[in-house]
From TrEMBL:
Mn(2+) 2 binds at D41, N79, H114, H195. The gene is lpxH. Mn(2+) 1 binds at D8, H10, D41, H197. Its cofactor is Mn(2+). Pathway: Glycolipid biosynthesis; lipid IV(A) biosynthesis; lipid IV(A) from (3R)-3-hydroxytetradecanoyl-[acyl-carrier-protein] and UDP-N-acetyl-alpha-D-glucosamine: step 4/6. It is found in: Cell inner membrane. One of its GO terms (biological process) is lipid A biosynthetic process. It comes from Arenimonas caeni. One of its GO terms (cellular component) is cytoplasm. Gene3D superfamilies: 3.60.21.10. Binds 2 Mn(2+) ions per subunit in a binuclear metal center. It catalyses: UDP-2-N,3-O-bis[(3R)-3-hydroxytetradecanoyl]-alpha-D-glucosamine + H2O = 2-N,3-O-bis[(3R)-3-hydroxytetradecanoyl]-alpha-D-glucosaminyl 1-phosphate + UMP + 2 H(+). This is UDP-2,3-diacylglucosamine hydrolase.
Amino acid sequence: MSLLLVSDLHLDAARPATTRAFIELLEGEARGCEALYILGDLFEAWVGDDDPGEPGASVCAALKALSDAGVPVFLMRGNRDFLYGQRMAERCGATLLPDPCVAVLQGVPTLLMHGDLLCTDDTAYQAFRRQVRDPAWQAQFLSQPLAARQAFAAQARAASREHQQGLSETITDVNPRAVAETMARYGVTRLIHGHTHRPAMHALEVGGRPAQRFVLGDWYDQGSVLRIHADGEVLEALAVPGAGAAATA
């Protein structure tokens, strides 16, 4: 059996075709996989576990059904859904993963990250990330009415788009030195992350050893899935039919 890894689906009510494609994956191929890893930004925004709206309700139910069928589901917070709590994990039947963390995938110790921590050249974003990950900030934010939190999320998304437009691709991508230092710190030669929306396999050297960095694709234009087969050697990044912003019917 294979392991499936996805990231950056950015599921949102405005893109129902993408949500349908992901649920079809959960009800289809994922039922025969060894485990499913979601490395952040499953949703376009998550303003608290008390939000009963869509597509959260449907996606959580589909993830819980997959977990109940015997497939372990692992969920990591991203920069859009960093407010996941234990209630969310229980709704999905999922295990929350710290970012970063090391998991042994098909026999290979692998560093899993959302990826935003590696974009160290974007100092303004890193400052914002430290602010919103602070437990005191989160407690104050979650104490607000749901409508106020939803309004804040909409404003934050607009500000993020404006911020990204004013930066070069180098600044919004990972910093190579940060990648090498992080992999060396965790003693691994394989890293898998998302966030940058630049799917690729990068060969590099860490501590004098050959290493690999796999970047998961986003689901704006097509659904991207990384499959790690049982032999631990073959990895494929393949599209999921029907996903993407263009198919919103």
